[in-house]
Amino acid sequence: MQLEGKVAVVTGGSLGIGAGVARRLAAEGAAVALDYYSHRDAADGVAASITAAGGKALVVQADVAQVADVQRLISQAVSRFGRLDILVNNAGVEQPAPFESVTEQQWDHQIAVDLKGAFFAAQAAWRQFVAQGGGGVIINISSVHEELPMVGNSVYCAAKGGLRMLTRTLASEVARHNVRIVNIGPGAIATPINQITLDDPARKAALLSEIPLKRIGTPEDIANAVVWLASDQASYVTGTSLFVDGGLMIYAGSL
Fold first, then answer.
1. Which of 16, 76, 85, 140 lies at a CB distance of 3.0 to 4.6 Å from 6, suitable for a disulfide?
2. In this predicted structure, what is the pLDDT of residue 54?
3. pLDDT tens readout for residues 199-249
């Protein structure tokens, strides 16, 4: 197991990509603290599947848009498991809307969850890494839309674009303590956030036409990349984005 003895925190760990990441990290030997915002039953189900397989899991309710909640999440993970080695900033929201109709509330909410939350979770994790010594890894679940425009989703794209620059900037700042920070940019993944598209044959066909590998990704595809980036095999990787998208970003070059 690549992560035996490690401790990981996964935000938004109750559903979709977060749930897949939490299970995969645990399967590789990590103790996992996963947070949820409102889906307590789903989070408990993920934790139960981890412990049933012989792993260690902790469920914490937290709103990543609130700095105090993020700090409490990290603190509770350390209190339970004794240390922290991996942070996966997965929690995110997407509220597509035409630019002209975006409200202040929509802007504030998406930026708070998708960018502010990742920033302050990274800060809390970094402080723990420094306090305990030995370095650590921060993995942000971003999106192909940190680089690829998406009409009608300007706030989401702005948040993910900000996350890209945040990662590139922080990488040089945290490296002195042997801390790495990397983005993963998922493409089209079979999660609840994409269910409307996946349930519409015409929209799904249009999406598949832009993906060279001609399939929708799975949470396990992203989880596999997380495990690799969190492991010593990726010890020379920091400050960059890894797109896990079936080749979707190839389309970006034709825009």
1. 85
2. 97
3. 888 999 998 999 999 999 999 999 999 999 999 999 999 999 999 999 999
Which one from 37, 156, 236, 251 is the annotated catalytic residue? Answer: 156
In a domain, 1, yes or no: no
107: domain range?
A: 7-252
Tokens of 92: 């995110």
Is 139 inside a domain boundary? yes
- DSSP one-letter code for 37: S
Residue 25 lies in a domain: yes
Report which of 65, 64, 55 is spatially closest to residue 31, judged by C-alpha positions.
55
Q: What is the mean pLDDT of the chain?
A: 95
Q: Structurally, how many domains does the chain consist of?
A: 1
Identify whether 37 is a catalytic site residue.
no
In a domain, 2, yes or no: no
CA distances to 39, 157, 189 from 144, in Å: 26, 9, 11
Helix (H, G, I), strand (E, B) or coil at 184: strand
CATH code, domain carrying 83: 3.40.50.720
Report pTM: 0.95
- Using the structure block, give the residue that is written with the tokens 């942000």: 140
3-state SS track over 136-178: EEEEEECCHHHCCCCCCEHHHHHHHHHHHHHHHHHHHHHHHHC
47-83 per-position pLDDT tens digit: 999 999 999 999 999 999 999 999 999 999 999 999 9
